[in-house]
Amino acid sequence: MFRCRFIFVAVLLMSASALAGVVTMTAGDGFGASSLNTAGKWNNALAPSAGNTYFNGGFLLRTPTGSGSYTFAGNTLTITSNNPTLGGDLNATLMYKGGGSSIITVNNLTVNGGNIRHGSGDGDTFTLAGNGLTVGSLGMGVATQGPLYVTAPIYGSGQILVLSCGNDNSTTRIVHFASPWSTYNGNIVLSTAKRSIFALDAGANLNFTIGANGINNSVSGAGIATFDGYFNLNLSGASSNLYDSWTLVDNSTLTETFSSTFTVLGFTDAGGNLWTGSIDATKWYQFDESTGILNVVPEPATIALLGFGGLSLLRIRKRR
Asked: What does pTM read for this prediction?
């Protein structure tokens, strides 16, 4: 009897394993069609389901039209491109085609050389939710024709390229990072002046890994960036030579704004757009919003002492 039960359970497990597998798109979704929640262009001719891993195969995966919210049913989804240039093929994409305001939830989402794209209008809000969006080593392109909010935590370290939104200084075509749980520590590049627009929303985090002098990830490019959230600086491997520096935000080319809600985690607001912090009593760092640069600086007590000494010397000279 026990042997029969064991064989029966084994057969069930083998059957479940046989049903689960790797599923890939064979073509891109056409106008008005979506493989997000239907059999669409999947090579198993079935709608996405639990237990399977899904790949777009370099093709266009559209979301459903209309204002409804949808959850992708597969275990994982990976968006890739056959074009070696990041952002070079905008049809190698998970593209939002909804209307009004929609939440598209994709758990265990990876973008590795492909794109996330808002393909509707200025009045249509695309929220990309889920338990995590991993940016692979080949990077992720982002293009938006309306508000795009990424509420899923962002992981990985591949480059994120914010592409042109097609509209100078748009007030809606903005890529918003909204999660406070991201561990992403790659480079964010805004490709086009006035048309690549990025916002770190209030409460959301952006991570920087600081190494030897000048070695770090950064936000750069020619676009527009607004920082309402907070920077989390990993200084565990940072050099501590006096006046070593790291450009976190390239203010020389970006049009950037640090709002009143911006903070540097673990640092103290020193006034005048400056944030000061340390990892021990001998290693002090200062971030300057006006330059986007992090520096190694003397410890505050030393600065105060130097200032006091200079003031005393000035008083002595005045007495003479």
From this structure: 0.89
> If you ran DSSP here, which 8-state letter would residue 251 be given?
T
Count the Cβ atoms, other than its own, within 10 Å of residue 251: 18
- DSSP code of residue 146: S
Element (H, E) at 14: helix 2-19
What does the domain layout of the chain look like in residue ranges?
23-201
- Percentage of the chain exceeding pLDDT 90: 86
Average pLDDT over residues 84-106: 97
The pLDDT score that the predictor gives to residue 94 is 98
Taking Cα atoms as reference points, which of 194, 210, 208 lies closest to residue 296? Answer: 210
Instruction: Tell me the C-alpha distance between 140 and 132, whole Å.
Output: 14
Dig out the tokens for 45 from the structure.
């001719």
CA angle at 246 for the pair 245 and 248, rounded to the nearest 5°: 145
Q: What is the DSSP letter of 132?
A: -
- 37-68 as b/e: b if 16+ CB within 10 A: eeebbbeeeeebeeebbbbbbbbbbbbbeeee
pLDDT at position 318, please?
Answer: 37
What is the Cα–Cα distance from 111 to 180, expressed in whole angstroms?
Answer: 20
pLDDT at 301: 55
Bridge partner residues of 141 (DSSP): 115, 161
Instruction: Specify the higher pLDDT residue, 270 or 3.
Output: 270
Distance CA 310, CA 316 (A): 10
Strand bridging mode 230-234 / 205-209: parallel
Taking the C-alpha atoms of residue 28 and residue 9, their distance in angstroms, rounded to an integer, is 39
Closest CA to 57 of 104, 136, 113: 113
Mean pLDDT of 292-308: 70
Query: For residue 149, how far is the Cα from the chain centroid?
Result: 11
Which pLDDT tens digit goes with each residue over 159-206? 999 999 999 999 999 999 999 999 999 999 999 999 999 999 999 999
